[in-house]
Write a structure and sequence with these properties.
Length: 98
């Protein structure tokens, strides 16, 4: 995988209460990823960007919701989420501000 694709795969960390609980309990981190990203690409991208070893990757698509507005209906975009489990002893610090 080329360097450009590594940065395109991971869009952002997904910050929520459930994601924080997973990180604490089972060493899993949640990321928003590109809709066309594969599990293998997510694994390589996380390993190279954060210098950690990935044990497993689970992905799912979050369907965009229909919203009503004064013009009728509009749809929020569909996006993809990846649950990344790291090997024991590995950790990602998502709170680092640069």
């Amino acid at each position: 995988m080329n360097q450009e694709r590594i940065f395109q795969v991971l869009v952002a960390p997904h910050v929520s209460e459930k994601a924080a609980a997973l990180a604490e309990a089972s060493n899993q981190y949640v990321f928003k990823v590109a809709v066309n990203a594969t599990k293998a690409e997510v694994r390589k991208s996380v390993e190279q960007l954060f210098k950690v070893k990935v044990e497993a990757v689970q992905t799912l698509k979050v369907k965009g919701k229909l919203k009503r507005n004064k013009y009728g209906q509009s749809a929020k975009p569909t996006w993809k989420k990846a649950y990344v489990r790291l090997e024991r002893g590995q950790e990602i610090d998502l709170a680092v501000a640069e």
